[in-house]
Amino acid sequence: MSQGAAVAREAAKPQDRGWAWMVLLAAVLLQGLTLGFPSCIGVFFTDLQHEFQASNSETSWFPSIMVAVLHGGGPLCSILVKRFGCRFAVMLGGLLSGVGMVSSSFCKSISQLYLTAGLITGLGSCFSFQAGVTVLGYYFVKWRTLANAMASAGVSLGFTLWPLLSQHLLDEMGWRNTFLIFGGILLNCCVCGAIMRPVQMASGSLPESPKPGEEPGKKAEEGRLFNGASSPHPELQQRTRRTACFQMLQKNLAFDIFCQNKGYQIYTIGVTWMMMGFALPHVYLVPYAIQNGVEERRAALLISIIGFINIFIRPLTGLLSGHRVFTGRRIYLFSLAALLCGLSNFICVISAEFNVLIFYCVILSIAMSGIGALTFQVLMDVVEMDRFSSALGLFTILESVTLLIGPPLTGLLVDITGDFHYVFYNSSFFLISAALFMALSFCALEKKTKLKEASKVPLENADRYQYSETPTEPQPESQSPPAVMYITSI
């Protein structure tokens, strides 16, 4: 009897062991299939321009929409995860991604690509990617930092393999057949999603407790109001619906966290500004190299070099940032990586020779490794895990705006001036300014928090709360974080 109970307890706690590592492997593949996929779009840039007679600005809208929707669909993904679970969201995303790329192979205009490859594939990639990131928070506690870093290595695999595969298929069968094959490859996201079975406690899912200040019968009463059973007044019903709609938006977009948590506020603004320039080299590096006389296959190899180095550097960055020395200070590592990423762009301005561009890719990939490995880990540091999905939704939808407008605006500048150097000037400006803003703001916030703590009784493990000004109660050491309790649905 006691042995069976012990087995049940072990089965109810799969964190950091057993099946969790299979889920991590699926997350690695997912990030390679989704977040790594836009890296190959630059390979098709010139062919799409010739096919549809489009300008740099018009052509760059295609990858911009894809990347923006990939990040900006976070709130919708958050709703899907909470209602149906991570497995359903990942598999639905894989289906949408595949359908989008298959449809793209039949497009007759660049605007149709905006809808199929941009919107549909981008939304599918968003569901698969963000649900895959969220599920890691449930399956890993002790090794969460390492798990996030290893999962982000999947992006590096995608960066390495997608451009090489794209160039080979493009040379052999053209961009339309290549897009058709890509549709079949992206359907493998459904296989990865099938591996991500829900985490449940032995007693099943926990009942939802009322929020502070909320009466237990309030939700039932609101439900009756929606059905018109309790109140015959249309104005009251309409006001109740507006209130419920506002509460739903606040819950899924984390507006309350953004307003109350200064750390989350600073980090979200900084990353949103940074993304205005972060994606520019990925979109324009291959066209820039081809324009300066680099052969097409060698130009596509540049993106693969970035991805290949990322494979080794990202896990090392994750291990380094997971050391207790950096607990509460990962934001400074992230800012340093963004600063290095911005400074590296000046290498391209100096020369466009292939050997120089290889050196640029090495430096850029090291900086990108830090950004990629730490982006979600820093977000998990500044918000509690039980609100991570909502915080991720607002975080990604804000950065998607700048990801959407950054490349087309820069492409318009290149069309007007005919000078690709503006791509790297713009990228450096946004990355460097964002890095300085985040580092200096968090430094000031940390000093302000220490002054507040000095005026009252110091808390144990106070470094855990230095990012937020909202008071929280430390959990007993014997308890696990509430976020790893369960994932709804199967």
TrEMBL record:
Gene3D superfamilies: MFS general substrate transporter like domains (1.20.1250.20). One of its GO terms (molecular function) is monocarboxylic acid transmembrane transporter activity. Residues 468-482 have a biased composition (Low complexity). InterPro entries: MFS, MFS_dom, MFS_trans_sf, Proton-linked_MCT. Residues 211-224 have a biased composition (Basic and acidic residues). The chain crosses the membrane at residues 21-45, 61-81, 88-106, 112-139, 146-165, 177-196, 266-287, 299-319, 331-351, 357-379, 391-410, 422-445. Residues 20-451 form the Major facilitator superfamily (MFS) profile domain. Its main location: membrane. GO terms for cellular component: basolateral plasma membrane. It is a multi-pass membrane protein. This is MOT6 protein. It comes from Psophia crepitans (common trumpeter).
